[in-house]
């Protein structure tokens, strides 16, 4: 199980600066943090690395040189760092969207718990987490219209389209490729990789047919049966999926306790 979470940044004057950690009592020495920084610096690109340093098993995600944040997940020796990559990309995006006034700081305990359960989530729940990301939704919408787009064009378009903050396009594409929604390929004669839409995501409400067919056996009192069926029919006759409603649905799906109850 994960032991703790550290958010840090590199300062050219002061070196490594720890911005947040959870729980507060965890301690990672400067030498280890410097090793994490140096390993990321070697590639210079956003992405995840994993390191074994003594008794510490570390999965670290670097947001890239534009923002320069490092999100470190401290793991037990028996944990597989790769199992947390999608979760690290997810919480990194949340942190980057909440940098103003350090709004992410009170979120850190919740983000740690969200990340801790990530390997136990099923594919539907991981798709729901992906859908929560506004950048992912923008990419899918663009690809629905065009089917394929060059990576360089997509990066320029996203920076122009998403004016509210930093866009980690590499992290977004890694997650979409893992979820088998897009495929990234090089084509001879093209100056940039091409991104193909190969699957799509759909979020919608559907009536519970088994309950509608036999509400009594599911515990509904007989005096409410007709009213229940009428209300369900009226609701779905006028139902149209909206992004706001869909986000409400996925908020339920990404909560493990609620999902298990459903």
UniProtKB/TrEMBL annotation:
Protein name, UniProt field: Uncharacterized protein
Source organism of this protein record: marine sediment metagenome
